[in-house]
Please model this.
Amino acid sequence: MKKFAIAAATATALTLTMANAAFAQQSTQAPMTLAAGEVTKTKEAASDTWITTKVKADLMTEKGVPGSDIKVETNKGVVSLSSDTAVTDAQKEMAIAIAKKIKGVQAVSADGLKSE
Model:
């Protein structure tokens, strides 16, 4: 029991020492500044990535839609759907409807979906 207490105390002391060293290292660095446009681009890219992921996931789980065959790309909230394999008009319309339901989607283009 005594060995465990010593080991725990040593581990805690090392952790605190390392944390203090990391903090001291950070505080000596110059503060990072970002231009307002860079922050906006980062938020936009994250949002576009989230939209693409959500649309793709919803297409994959929807019965009657060949979600694995449909490629999804998003740019500034505009979703583009495309496919190398042909889809029916009903599948195309369903894919468009699924994409439009996602929060943040500004528009949906399905020009890249080949019809049967």
Notes: The first helix runs from residue 2 to 27. The two ends are 74 Å apart (CA to CA). The longest strand covers residues 70-75.
